[in-house]
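dude i think i finally got it to work??
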Amino acid sequence: MRVALLVTSLGALVAGAFVACGDSPSATSDGGTDAANADGGLVDGVAPGDDAGGFDGGKVDAGYLVGPERGWARESVHRIVWKAPAVDAGDVAPVVEATLDDGVSWQPVPEEQINVADHRVMFQVPAAGGTRVRVRITDRGLVTDTGPKNLIASQKRTYRWTKLTETAPFGPRDGTGGLVYHGRLYAIGGWNPDLHPITLTTNDVWSSADGLSWVQEKANTFLNPLTFDNNADWAGRHFGGYVVHDDKMFIVGGDPLQDDYQTDVWSSTTGKTWTRVTGNWGVTPSRAFQHVTEFLGKIWVMGGQGLTDYGTKRDPSGAYSDVWSSPDGLSWTQTMPTSGVWAPRGIIGNNAVFQGRMWIVGGGLYEDPLYPTGRYFADTWSSADGASWTREAEDPPFSPRRYNSLATFDGRLWVLGGYNDAEGNLADNWYSGDGSNWYPEGDPGLVSRHAGTVWVLDAKTMFWGSGNAFYDDGVTEKWLADMWKIEAIP
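look at this
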């Protein structure tokens, strides 16, 4: 499968620095337990290559199992990891059992939920029986135990997926901005070096009422970076920040693919014409891949990364976990943390406000001379004010990833697609009713992808598509511009 395109941008984009949104196979998967510097958001205390989480749960001692602190919802899936004892007892398989009657009787956990090599159980909570569940693992004489978990009602839902097209008229692209505004879906910009070999990215805008029929609202004017007027129009970009705020569509920052950090903010009420709010938002240091959302009547910028290849002495490389907000996109104020600090990161697409809180789920850091291993995260955080953060799930069942998309749909928090070093582009999608208990959404036949775009049209209809989605059956290989409609089934 073709997961990546190597590109070189205007003599400054080094080979290997960005591969199809920049992903290259040399990053550390991370459960999100890095130490963080609350004063500046710089990564601190974790040497490159340290295992601070990731696929096997990271810093886990024998006898300790990773799992959410809340009750376990019926039918949800939970990652349980254990550290095998340093005893060579030959080819002895661990015994994994569960009880619904406080240990009176134990039943074996199905083998398909157990990964012995990774010391991991992907435990699916039974749909019925008991009021508490407990999982026990016996591995060469060492017994580890989750302890009893209270059972709560299932959050599982049923959804219908319909593929609308594989050839949306705006063409294949990833990192496209997705907004729903006045009942229409908007696709904004994106990255495709095959179609745009000089600029790599585009600044066109398309809209649709149904995800199938699209109208071009704004033609691409980003044809030559050397002659482009950044004061008159916004430069092409991918994976910027996109929100609806104050009854306007906003573009907030972007990426460094044009050999500098995009720190501008633009707004529009039509998608056709755009007004520059500011050319430099004042969020410091300069960065790319920040997470942007709209919450409590403000635009929020969280985290992001500066890269050595694009940094200057004034804007050095770094990774950030700081939080900024603005009532208008022009004046920005930093919110200082009062409790809870998530590890510095960015590269999280779209955004989610869920249960009166804004959310950080997954994400990561690029490979960079200061962070040569890169990072992938899976942990889940939420905040009601941007200052106090709660870790809702340390090690959820989905794998660490960056370029995943977030959404709130049908009363559920969603994580869609993404990329990591071990698996490449990802096709799995997950949802949760509380941010702690997660359910895998069934496989509708999606091509795996990262940097896809999600649009939530209304309470019962969501669209998902585009992104770095390559179809390869061994004979035919093509980059899809597909669109899927997801409907909640009562």
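The CA atoms of residues 2 and 148 lie 45 Å apart.
im so relieved honestly
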